[in-house]
Amino acid sequence: MTAWLITNKYFINKSFDNLKKLLIKSANRHDVELTIYNNLEIINILSKNNYVRPNFVLFWDKDVKLANYIELQGIKVFNSSNSIRLCDDKSLTYLSLLNCNIKQPKTLFSPLLYYHNAAEDKDYLKFILEKFEFPFVFKECFGSFGQQVYLINNIEELQQKIISVDVWPYIIQEFIKSSYGKDLRLYVVGGEVKASMKRENTKGDFRANIEIGSHGSKYNANDKQIEMALKVSKKLGLDFGGIDLLFGENDEPIFCEANSNAYFNELNKVTNVNIEDYIFDHILMSI
Q1: What is the pTM of this model?
Q2: Out of 3.40.640.10, 3.30.420.40, 3.30.470.20, 1.10.10.10, which CATH number does the structure's domain 86-103+178-286 have?
Q3: What share of the chain in percent tops pLDDT 90?
């Protein structure tokens, strides 16, 4: 059994280096010959006619077009290009889960902009302020590790942020105060929640991402939280992924984000679960 692990040549991250080691070891345990290629290398390989196709591709990048191109060569990709597309664009994630009985924060996605003028558009600013009270959350539609997520406290901060993102798309969301600095990560593989952890930031940041200094602890998710995570995963077509939920009043689950290539280093450590083994088990049963 052979497989390719696709990474991004232009992304360097120590946590991902550790994740690759976990995936390589798990591949060995499953008798899978795993070869690692970056996105530039794989484009070169696919341009030739004499390459040997793998049994599957483990796609740990967000290059939707490349994932789709691999699929069009008749190669099975995990996760699929469509799932990556729906998860990577936060506005598409929001729209995909509407009318599905999945509670989400009140959300507004930015209009399509052709040139920079939104920060000076008084009608647009008035519209936002009629819909949301300060503080609210401003998220660039494409981003990772919480680094493109901001808490907006006043109109000056809003204008500055709109100016800084230029024509880049974003969403505005209601701030869930009961989940300040904490959230819940559930890892779903093959339609089952395999592990969950609570993430908490003790440094005063409203975001709970591990990569910005939060820490994880084992958490026994309740039935409602598990039900929501499974429903989100199924709706987005994920074979595996991290589903992040906020804590509403009385711990009511509120959907936050879905991650098609979520890291699980911290999750493995605090739960004593090997998510990578579940991923390979699922893939080998699926092909």
Answers
A1: 0.95
A2: 3.30.470.20
A3: 84
